[in-house]
Amino acid sequence: MHQAETLEKIMNQNSRGRYAPPVTASVPRVICVTSGKGGVGKTNIVVNLAYSLTKLGKKVVVLDADLNLANVDVLLGLTPRHNLHHVFLGEKTLKEILVKGPGGIFILPASSGVLELSDLTEEQKLYFLAEMAELGEDIDILLIDTAAGINKNVIYFTLAAEERVIVLTPEPTSLTDAYAMIKVLSTRHDVKKFRILVNSAHSEKEAVAVFRQLTLVADRFLETLSLDYLGYIPFDKKLPQAVRAQRLVTELSPHCPASAMFHKLAKFIAEEDKVPQSDGNIKFFWQRLLDL
């Protein structure tokens, strides 16, 4: 079995008996994209951002971390034969379940069905971490698409990634739920840094106003919190058209307003990636997943 072979390789523990991730020349960024509520377009943002990043020469893998309702493959019209469930069972490696998507992005598909990562055995976690380490040698950026809301799986991946993007829309309920998520991560898990991306805004002015509302509430009720405005994706009729066609809007309508903003955001992230990061890389992801 793959799992037995891999576990034998990773028994190189340090003096404290902890798992020691191998040192590699490549140190990918791990960016978790999450939201306080469903229906804000989070998955659409992840896959279109991934596509735009690959156009800039980045090797990108999308991890579908919605283990209750996998939807990245559905959004792209893909039909993977294997998924993360087979990895956790030790039947497949991460590289064996990778599915190639449009533009050269790669997808790690999730399995639909209830699966709490917090309930994984230590052996399963070690195996998954070793697989992530090996995969990390071949990529530049790992984008994690979590489920919406605050459940064990969302918290698990969000805490592990260190670099977090919260997606919200101008709707009042979206703002409330985004704040609720930030509050939980801040007060219960001591997370203090968040990047905010506003989706479906009719203008940058509206997007900035939403961000300011969020910061006003956060500054009033939460201490020592850092909210960074990452940008916005404009409301665009081309987006739902692309979803219905199971295509990426950046691929189907590369010059529409939404696609232009995805390209702009990808360029910003790609250029930012040239600066050494103190956190948000796969090294922290390994160790934090093991600790959770």
Mean of the pLDDT scores?
84
Percent of residues in beta strands: 15-25%
**Fold-level CATH name:** Rossmann fold
The number of helical elements comes to: 13
Main sheet: strands, sense, barrel? 8 strands, mixed
The dominant shape is globular
Give the fraction of residues assigned to helices: 40-55%
Instruction: Please give the CATH class.
Output: Alpha Beta
Instruction: Report the strand count.
Output: 8
Q: Detail the poorly predicted runs.
A: 10-25, 275-280
Report the structural category: alpha/beta
Number of separate structural domains:
1
Can you tell me the CATH superfamily?
A: P-loop containing nucleotide triphosphate hydrolases
Keyword list:
single chain; 292 residues; alpha/beta; Rossmann fold; eight-stranded mixed β-sheet; 13 helices; 8 strands; 46% helix
Structure characterization notes:
The longest helix is centred in the middle third of the chain and has 18 residues, at 172-189. The protein has helices at 2-9, 42-55, 72-76, 84-88, 94-97, 122-136, 152-161, 172-189, 204-221, 238-244, 249-252, 257-272, 282-291, and strands spanning 29-35, 60-65, 99-100, 106-108, 141-148, 163-168, 193-201, 226-234. An 8-stranded mixed sheet has the order 3-4-2-5-1-6-7-8, with helices on both faces. The chain is α/β, with parallel strands linked by helices and 292 residues long. It is globular, with a radius of gyration of 18 Å. The chain has one domain (27-291): P-loop containing nucleotide triphosphate hydrolases (Rossmann fold). Helices cover 46% and strands 17% of the residues. Helix 9 (204-221) links the parallel strand 7 (193-201) and strand 8 (226-234). The protein is built from 13 helices and 8 strands.
